[in-house]
Amino acid sequence: MKCLGKVTVTLKVTVTFILLSSCTALGGVNPTPVIADLAATQEEVQFEAPQTPTPEPFRLTLPTPGAEPVSGWRPPLYPVPWAMSPYDHFYFARPIAANQVNWPLADYRYGGIFFAPNIVHTGVDIPAPDGTPIMAAGPGTVIWTDWGLFRETPGDVTDPYGLAVVVRHDFGYKDQQLYTVYAHMSRITAVEGAHVQTGDLLGFVGATGATTGPHLHFEVRFPTNSFHHTYNPELWIAPPQGWGVLVGRVTDTKGVALQQLQIAVRSEENGITRIVKTYGGGAINPDPYYNENVVLGDLPAGLYKLTLHYVDEKNPIKEKDRQTWVEIYPGQVTYFTFTGNDGFDISRPLAPTLDFLPVPVSTVTPTP
Ligand SMILES: [Zn+2]
């Protein structure tokens, strides 16, 4: 089933549309011990967006949910915090147990724009049946257990997050407080003010708030527990063992981020192609280190060919499809940039030194 969540909120004078959840729940998908990758058959539906306050007309692509290759199986996850290199910061476990689908829905990633302009996805959606246990992604203190998270109005049953839990973690990131958010729950068992450990039960999957089907909407926030301070959870949840994460910054020749650009990621080992798009605009943030605008998590280690279509209008060259090859390493981020006619570069940003190690909570300033 398809679930779409959106709400119109008046903030000061401008009108902002918020998408909190948009997913197809993979109901009935059970993990099996057999890798069952499906061939990619991505269909797209084009339609005109409704009238909105945005100054420019907008055309968007609604991907057909579930068309991207999806494996019915993943290896066990790396223990957290996991950082094989100083470049990575996989601090969090997944909030759904490893014996179920616990990975983000491929077609509804962070930064995606699916249904209308200015509705950007600020988290990832993990499809799970109603009543599936939701677990704390890391140790911390429960600071919210109610309706009303988006407007910070406890008890507001019209809030798009529905019943939600927020955990303020015991560790920070570069001296900044980390939070995780769990939304659309059917029932909350966590108690506000209580301390939880990784894997402790917070409540159960539901379909409360702006959604029409059960799933978990999961966010990572810092340095404040605010809708405008989310970051891509796929950079923070530990990958399955032997798998890695592709992270990129894709811009035009002048360095301006290209939005909603489709990139094909083809495994040279088995030919399976995954499609990922660069972030849209809106209330999303790139990682302070990677400065990325595209992330594709849960990739088995190996060699992949990246293909994207780019035309520099002022300086067109013949070949419009640009390609490069990247190696995905187990338990690590593989980084690339694309800069218009300057093409691909697979060198990493400068090493971030020890800033990436989790720091005790006593050295960070808690914020509400
Ligand atoms: Zn969501």
Polypeptide structure, described:
This protein has no helices and 22 strands. It is mainly β and 368 residues long. Strands 5, 6, 7, 8, 9, 10, 11, 12, 13 and 22 form a 10-stranded antiparallel sheet that branches. A 4-stranded mixed sheet has the order 17-14-20-21, with no helix packed on it. It has a 4-stranded antiparallel sheet with strand order 16-15-18-19, with no helix packed on it. Zinc ion (ZN) is lined by residues 20-21, 121, 123, 125, 217.
Observed structural traits:
0% helix; binds zinc ion; mainly beta; disordered N terminus; Immunoglobulin-like
Q: What is the total number of structural domains?
A: 2
CATH architectural type of the largest domain: Distorted Sandwich
What's the CATH class of the largest domain, please? Mainly Beta
Mean pLDDT: 78
Tell me the overall shape: globular
Let me know the number of strands: 22
Q: Which regions are unreliable across 5 or more consecutive residues at pLDDT < 50?
A: 1-70, 361-368
Let me know the largest β-sheet.
Answer: 10 strands, antiparallel
User: In percent, how much strand structure appears in the residues?
Assistant: 35-45%
- What order do the SSEs take from the amino end to the carboxyl end, as H and E? EEEEEEEEEEEEEEEEEEEEEE
- Ligands in the structure? zinc ion
